[in-house]
Amino acid sequence: MDIKSSISMSSRHYLSVTHLSAAALFSQRAAMLEPVLTLGDSASNEGLREHTACVITSIMLSVAFLEATINELWADCSEGFDPVRIEGLQNREAMATLWRKSSLKRSTMLEKFELALELNEKPGISKDTNPYQDVKLLIDLRNALVHYEPETVFNFSCGNKDKSTEHKFDKKLRGRFEPNRLTGFGNPFYPDKVLGAGCALWATASAVAFADTFFEKLGLSCIYAHTRSTYGV
Fold this sequence. Notes:
Order of helices and strands: HHHHHHHHHH
Number of helices: 10
Radius of gyration: 21 Å
Number of strands: 0
Oligomer: single chain
């Protein structure tokens, strides 16, 4: 008599950790390149291309990390995955139902974070201070890069700045990080001076700070905790 048996195995990959790893890698690479490159030097051309690519990629992946992080939490509740980790959530069953049957998946990323805290009767993240403000600006910057529309950017000599034509990112991002050192007097703040290593490092740090605050308020461990020393976050 032949006896046949089969074993079913399942696994779950958390892409948020992969996104965080890549965002940290690209931001750190940009920080290494910026001091050793020279604008206008043909020998630096390839390095300048890599530097810009690293900065933009880090910005995009920092936001992708946050989006994957909150989607993974809602999906874990919906599918009952990692029950030990999520058992402390007061209303995980309500979260599961909402994820499966409502239009929640079409909500904005920040709305998903806010609703998770609200459903579990936890204090919200203040919208008037950091890390919320930094992440809101990070998302705005990511959206401007992904859905780019050409626009005229004015650059004024010292003392002649016209506030009425000041770019929105000039107003909101200036002072939050070191400007791109591979720029000069003739470069406008956005996008030239924004897209530097300082911005890339700020993007990653802001995303992690927001996620840390969220999980602390929720009373839940974060799945990226073991990566801190490795990724430098």
